[in-house]
């Protein structure tokens, strides 16, 4: 009977066959230990010479790293294994013999591993990160479906830019100018006016020439938009959503978190509600911590966000940023028009901003004024402005960057490990 490694626990005491690759092996004169992977997980296969005979044992000893095989044997419980099971191998068949596999168990430099990303994905560490990424995606759909949101897919090719064109990839759309999307938000606002509560999940592109561990050129965003939701309503959805995905990873990815050495006690604290501080309060805190260089109207950088986050064991909202720092579509605070009803959600442990969101302007005259102030082309935003012309309502939304969130929850240092094939400033291969 064929099965997979992840299903091995359902076949204790039974003889099964698994298609696998050899990740590693060690052997003595009488016994060999095969580290096997099949994409669903990792298991150790134990092959004893006296039980299988000389031919099969020598075949096992001569196996090369990443050779593909069928292994047949009996599944046993093994409390020493993080997985909890191992296989007593009775027979094996070589499907394809791998030769000179470049990524050996020794240490390799980052650039070498990135050049071989198509193979590096096979390692147990990268496998764990990808499984956590998958769980976050699965939990995202579960959360928004159970909350009554409708999935909508905004276009990737756009004729205008939500936040200006300076950091967008330009292309030609036949005879017109077009851009790779930096956000689906404007289109999601239109969808919210039709469907109430919507969310999108797709790739976004930023032509930002940054080399930090937090930045990618191509990354994935979850972008909900909600009609009749005001500022505080928006923050509540964000903290409920983030709490949900963290708890889902804790529940369903314990083996992967253990493999990565993640301190899960820090994640166990991530439950709504989250602390909130204003931009003004953040500046006061930073000045008390010795950040004398930052003044009102300056954006917060990574060191500032990290210093603030270190004071909390949960993500923290920083709200009410200066209007001058934020895009044209954000609703001003009725009590202070110098700031807007927005919030950045800063992850703990130095991982920075994972969500940006705001209440959106719903007054047509104010939106048209903002478009003019930001020197944007009114005609390009005519359709967007019309959302305020025909039954405008207060509405809010946010965007969560998937890769930064994966990095934080899994505890890996750099976002390049959190997407299968990262696009970085100087990397388009493989």
TrEMBL record:
InterPro entries from the UniProt entry: Aa-tRNA-synt_II, aa-tRNA-synth_II, aa-tRNA-synth_II/BPL/LPL, Asn-tRNA-ligase, Asp/Asn-tRNA-synth_IIb, NA-bd_OB-fold, NA-bd_OB_tRNA
Subcellular location(s) of the protein: Cytoplasm
EC numbers: 6.1.1.22
Reactions catalysed, as given in the entry: tRNA(Asn) + L-asparagine + ATP = L-asparaginyl-tRNA(Asn) + AMP + diphosphate + H(+)
Keywords annotated in UniProt: Aminoacyl-tRNA synthetase, ATP-binding, Cytoplasm, Ligase, Nucleotide-binding, Protein biosynthesis
Gene Ontology MF annotations: asparagine-tRNA ligase activity; ATP binding; catalytic activity, acting on a protein; nucleic acid binding; transferase activity
GO cellular component: cytoplasm
Keyword Cytoplasm: yes
Biological processes annotated in GO: asparaginyl-tRNA aminoacylation
The organism's place on the tree of life at top rank: Bacteria
Entry-linked PANTHER family: ASPARAGINE--TRNA LIGASE, MITOCHONDRIAL-RELATED, ASPARTYL/LYSYL-TRNA SYNTHETASE
Name of the protein in its database record: Asparagine--tRNA ligase
Organism (species): Jeotgalibacillus alimentarius
